[in-house]
Amino acid sequence: MNKKKYAQLDETGRVKFAMFESDEEAANAGFLPYEETEKPETPENVIPHNYTRSYEEQEGKIVLVWKAYPNYEAIKQLKEKLASTDYKVIKCNEASLLGSPLPYDMAEVHRERQEIRDEINRLEACE
Q1: Among residues 13, 59, 73, 62, which one has the least CA distance to residue 35?
Q2: What is the DSSP letter of 10?
Q3: Which domain holds residue 50?
């Protein structure tokens, strides 16, 4: 017999997967059939992580659903802002490798970039 994938949700919404040979065997262990849905396409695939996985019980199954980040545009703009400062890191790295003075204050560049990354992470966590 072929084993099928089953899932179980805990009280926090975390999912646990297991393989069983029958629905009855899975049910006895507290698992439900598992079903995946396809991740939606993003506009021009600009941001690959603009959806987060979520699991829900629907009609006696555990279903993988994709929830869009509510802050899609803000995340996109922050990622563009972060990318627009990449050249500073590259120029400082080149200068450092050549033993030349750094053209930018790297502590300040790092601080600014880290603030942007922290905000992206906060928004991607859907806070």
Answers
A1: 62
A2: -
A3: 4-68
Per the confidence metrics, is the pTM higher than 0.90?
Answer: no
- Residues 59 and 15 reside in one and the same domain: yes
**12 and 62 together in one domain:** yes
Cα–Cα distance between 47 and 122 in angstroms, integer? Answer: 16
Question: According to DSSP H, which parts of 1-127 are helical?
Answer: 23-28, 72-83, 86-98, 106-124
Task: Let me know whether 45 and 79 are in one domain.
Answer: no
C-alpha 22/C-alpha 36 separation (Å) is: 19
Which token pair is 8?
Answer: 């179980």
- 19: tokens are 């393989």
- Band of residue 42 on the pLDDT scale cut at 50, 70, 90: low
Using the 3D structure, point to which of 28, 46, 68 is the last residue of a domain.
68
**34 bridge partner residues:** 62
